[in-house]
């Protein structure tokens, strides 16, 4: 029986497997990908509707036993990198003994997480099920970022906020009982893109005068779950390469995501902070952490571009330590299924596997 695809816990309608082939063309600017361009007002209305549905879907997702943890505390921080000034929240999940260790001057590794939702919907608490494994397996602090969302805040605000969150933790590491030399980024879907582009943006920032006073630190790893990595590919082309096009995300939701985030129309889609697959070897060698944990989904339209980037990161001259796994017979974001009776099949085993790898990296294995 076919599984119904979801978007971060929201069941969505299927695209017919017999959808006609479309002519392929190279996408250069946002206008090439989105034509005609919807009004920003209509996009805000649509985004609000989907955010409401997503809240319901994730509420069901959280009901399944074992229940995920709640944040221990929240910090609201100002943006410093983005040209669009404002503030955003960080949700902190802390392991057992955190307060006692903090009083004793001990520190923990930290995993900095970015939620999914096409840069348009979602919240920092969406990945709480994964947070449980970070706390229990890694004995690390899980910091999930409520980066600002499109269409209100299109590219590159989310990337800037993501890099700013890392920067804040580096500067505040002592006060937060975090070891700044044991950091990792993580994310799901759009957040998986940010897990990669945040470190590229941070590296870019550190190469400027503004980044010259940043304390010593080390981002050791990135764990990226079914990321979007190349916006120069059309959604139609991606669907055609999928082994199960009927299980890919439908056009109405991907069109909303793309129109919301890819703005203004002259935005270049090959920007490495948007499409990390388009970064140069030098940019990836300098900006991506030394260890990469990379997951893709077999029925996902993003499978091919993710697989290609994972292989590239592991090859010379980039030469990262890449641990890649394609999860068979599941659609995009399968682990966020809105089933109140049980976690998505295989999700907890894979979360544990990922966190064991992170633990080994933090411990120098």
Walkthrough of the structure:
The protein is of the alpha/beta class and 365 residues long. The protein has a single domain, classed as Alpha/Beta hydrolase fold, catalytic domain (Rossmann fold, 3-Layer(aba) Sandwich), CATH 3.40.50.1820. Helix content is 37%, strand content 17%. It contains twelve helices and ten strands. The strands form two sheets. Strands 3-4-6-5-7-8-9-10 form an eight-stranded mixed β-sheet, sandwiched between helices. A two-stranded antiparallel sheet has the order 1-2. Strand 3 and strand 4 form a beta hairpin. The termini are far apart. InterPro entries: AB_hydrolase_3 (IPR013094), AB_hydrolase_fold (IPR029058), GDXG_lipolytic_enzyme (IPR050300). Keywords: Hydrolase. This is Alpha/Beta hydrolase protein. It holds the Pfam family Abhydrolase_3.
Summarize the structure.
The protein has 365 residues and is of the alpha/beta class.
Shape: globular
Unreliable parts: 13-23
CATH fold call: Rossmann fold
Please tally the helical runs, counting DSSP H or I stretches of 4 or more residues: 12
Order of helices and strands: EEHHEEHEHEHHEHEHHHEHEH
**Structural class by secondary-structure content:** alpha/beta
Query: Could you tell me the strand content as a percent range?
Result: 15-25%
Largest sheet, order of strands side by side?
Answer: 3-4-6-5-7-8-9-10
Percent helix among the residues? 25-40%
CATH superfamily: Alpha/Beta hydrolase fold, catalytic domain
> How confident overall, as mean pLDDT?
93
CATH class: Alpha Beta
Instruction: Count every beta strand, where a strand is a DSSP E run of 2 or more residues.
Output: 10
CATH architecture term: 3-Layer(aba) Sandwich
- Termini distance? 42 Å
**Count of distinct structural domains:** 1
Q: Give the C-alpha Rg.
A: 19 Å
Largest sheet: 8 strands, mixed
């Amino acid at each position: 029986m076919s599984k119904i695809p979801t978007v971060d816990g929201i069941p969505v309608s299927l695209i017919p497997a017999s959808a006609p082939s479309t002519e392929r063309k190279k996408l250069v600017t946002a206008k090439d990908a989105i034509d005609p361009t919807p009004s920003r007002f209509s996009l805000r209305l649509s985004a609000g509707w989907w955010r409401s549905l997503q809240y319901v879907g994730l509420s069901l997702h959280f009901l399944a036993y074992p229940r995920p943890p709640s944040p221990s505390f929240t910090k609201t921080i100002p943006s410093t990198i983005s040209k669009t000034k404002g503030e955003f929240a960080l949700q902190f999940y802390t392991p057992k003994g955190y307060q006692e260790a903090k009083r004793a001057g001990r520190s923990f590794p930290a995993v900095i997480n970015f939620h999914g939702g096409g840069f348009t919907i979602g919240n920092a608490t969406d990945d709480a099920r994964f947070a449980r494994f970070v706390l229990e397996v890694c004995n690390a602090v899980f910091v999930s970022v409520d980066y600002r969302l499109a269409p209100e805040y299109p590219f590159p605000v989310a990337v800037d906020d993501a890099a700013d969150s890392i920067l804040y933790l580096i500067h505040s590491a002592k006060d937060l009982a975090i070891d700044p030399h044991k950091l990792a980024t993580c994310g799901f879907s759009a957040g998986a893109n940010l897990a990669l582009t945040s470190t590229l943006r941070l590296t870019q920032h550190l190469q400027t005068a503004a980044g010259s006073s940043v304390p010593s630190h080390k981002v050791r790893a990135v764990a990226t779950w079914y990321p979007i990595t190349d916006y120069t590919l059309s959604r139609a082309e991606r669907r055609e390469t999928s082994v199960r096009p009927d299980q890919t995300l439908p056009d109405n939701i991907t069109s909303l995501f793309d129109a919301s985030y890819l703005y203004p129309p002259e935005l270049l889609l090959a920007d490495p902070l948007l499409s990390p697959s388009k970064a140069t070897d030098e940019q990836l060698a300098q900006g991506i952490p030394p260890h990469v944990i990379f997951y893709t989904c077999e029925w996902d339209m993003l499978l091919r571009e993710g697989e290609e980037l994972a292989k590239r990161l592991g090859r010379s001259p980039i030469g990262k330590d890449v641990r890649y796994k394609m999860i068979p017979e599941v659609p995009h974001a399968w682990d966020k299924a809105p089933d109140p009776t049980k976690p998505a099949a295989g999700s907890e085993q894979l979360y544990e596997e990922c966190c064991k790898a992170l633990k080994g990296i933090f411990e120098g294995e």
